Amino acid sequence: MAEAGPSKVPQKKRKPTKPQVRSSKVKRISQVKSIEALEQAVQQYEPAPDLKAFSDLPISELTKKGLKKAFFMDMTDIQAKSLPFSLKGKDVLGAARTGSGKTLAFLIPVLEILYRRKWGPQDGLGALIISPTRELAVQIFEVLRSIGGYHAFSAGLVIGGKNLKDERERLSRMNILVATPGRLLQHMDQTIGFECDNLQMLVLDEADRILDMGFQKTLSALLSHLPKSRQTLLFSATQTKSVSDLARLSLKDPVPVGVNPESDSPDDAHIVPKSLEQHYVVCELDKKLDILWSFIKSHLQTKTLVFMSSCKQVRFVFETFCKMHPGIPLLHLYGKQKQMTRLATFQRFTTMKHAVLIATDIAARGLDFPAVDWVLQLDAPEDVDTYIHRVGRTARYESAGKSLLFLVPSEEEGMTQALAKNNITAEKIKIKASKTQSIENQLQKLAFQEPEIKYLGQRAFVSYLRSIHLQKDKDIFKLDQLPIERFAESLGLPGAPKVKFLSKEMAKQKKNASRVVTSIQTPQSNVKKTVIDNDQSSDEEDTEGLSDDSSGEEDKIENPKEGNLEKPSKVRTKYDRMFERKNQNILSEHYTKLIDHSADIGQGDDEDDFITLKRADHELNELGSILDSEHLSKRKQRLALSKKAISKGGPKGHKLIFDEEGKPHELYEMKAVEEVFKDNEHVKEAGKKFAESERSKLKELDVIDKEEAKEKKREKKRKRKEREREAEGVDMGPTIVPVDDDGYISPDFDLPSGSEDEDEEAPPTKRQKGFAMENAHRNHRPAERTSLEDEEELALQLLGSRR
After folding, report:
1. 276-501 sits in which CATH class?
2. Partners of 94 in the beta sheet?
3. Every domain range in the chain assigned CATH 3.40.50.300
4. Strands across the sheet with 201-205, in order?
5. What is the C-alpha end-to-end distance of the chain, expressed in Å?
6. Which of 100, 279, 391, 483 is deepest in the core (most CB within 10 A)?
7. Looking at the predicted structure, is the pLDDT value of residue 437 above 80?
8. What's the CATH code, domain 32-269?
9. Is the pLDDT of residue 570 over 80?
């Protein structure tokens, strides 16, 4: 659109000339013909055995330019095997080891399918790529931008931790969407205008991880929103039963693709790269941090990735190691970080040459960190799949790498056997004690100086034990064989924190101990009895408990054939053992000694019964006689005590208290004064003396109050006279205020008392006098005199007139 001129008159849009229209038509026609030719080439394409270059594939020139610009020239095994099928529109079940190029294996078909179907902005969402983690989704989106820059599609990234409102505004314009399951389902349920009815392709990357993270229900809900007439590509580094079930439900006649040239079975996904050197070391739990610190100090020119089992451990090790200054940049990555922090850490570690990243298993899947030299697994992985994903962060593509697995002595046998079952061999190495630096004292100093470090250490301690407690494979992870106290000391803690689930686990193990079947000979008879011992009690206690039962109280069964009586064998239950415990009657014996159940307290001959309480027979016959009546049934007795019966005027209960003699009394009883003070003459005399002293005090206070009232009255009169003299112009000098006057006037003396001061008025002001004189001159009569001199003059005039 042309710019406006000086007169600000908008210019009309120029119509395209005929040559321009012809050239655009020619371009469209040529593009349609090229797409048709590309479609025919794809359907007729048969891959060669030695297929390696991307240029040999039947793909568009736009995609080839993007691949060349991103320096992707040759294909990997998974790409060469899956692309010929996925480009034809078939469903693919891909299983490949980590670092084998699965991302391009599904991004190239996404671009090509939409390009051949002439997908435009008005067509809506055409391809959906679901990733388990945010970091992997960001990585896939960056690769899509690098190879799809020459296409006209719009692509979007939808992950948790970002502004939901901004995503809603752009979501309706996206042709290709990369998303995590949770946020995608949120948009499908809440965002208006977001529809997937026209979806052409669905890609599930790291499908096993999506299911392991608890997104199985979310994924099922997502698949219910999507059309069934779509192409689905499912890629994973490991093939589990849950992944197979998902493939059976979401894929139609999928083509299984593996990495082994001799077999296309997905079971070959457990093969690790040949360029990976795998090692493991057996060390005590309290020596792990010492070995890790020594390793970092001796490998300052490498790029290392350290895996731990919990977020609290990652944060504790990161904070403490940073304060100890190892001499190499330290980074940490875990799930509870903010989204921007996670992305910044991911990008920093990707670009750095020498660094140490301490992370949880959030960094174990799909992330492509270039040039990682070492992968350390400080905590053992939960299964072989997790081990494969962890070591897959190094030795990617054709580069080399090394891995080191830390195992405690109780984990060595189980973990090595599990790895051997999957054709994975790791070489055992030993750490020289002379080259290992102990950091226990430094951690103790940090925990003592900074309470935050101590708190992080406690949380790391509990989180590690919880992770071991929650592991499924109990043949490998044995919580009861860990040196818990020494582990707490190695973290710098003064003692092992209390762990609730640990105590519950010990109690559970004791309760569910293996039952031991023993045969015991009773002393009273020659009958053998079978006892199922459910805990670790002694044989003497069992024999003692059985001897009471074999005294002839058991049921006897008559054998009609032999005509004699036999005692059957008895199986003791846990209830029998509970009631046979020796310490069960400690309190009960003490209680029976305190209570004498005999009628007379003096009948006891035992010397231990000298302190006894006689049970009193409380004669409560009012309500008890009604309820205990023989003429009433139990049902009617219960109904008599119900609230409904009481509200209708039935018998109402009331609370009683008992005195020292055991006699009942009402809760509140009024007693007469004579009864209270009966036979207490000194109490009456004391009352009289107290009354007389109070009367004398009241008289003295009455005199003082009257004097204060008179003084206030005199002071009030004196102030009034002062105001009158001030009005006459007489200077009375300084006013003397009594010292004991606090300025308070009692309300009783402010009221009119009918005295001479009742009708007095305030003296007139000068302004009022002027108005009075002026009115007198007007009316030709003398003005009112308000002073004494005027009154005397008026009296003389009156006397003279009478004479």
Report:
1. alpha beta
2. 235, 257
3. 32-269, 276-501
4. 155-158, 176-179, 127-130, 201-205, 231-236, 92-95, 255-257
5. 125
6. 391
7. yes
8. 3.40.50.300
9. no
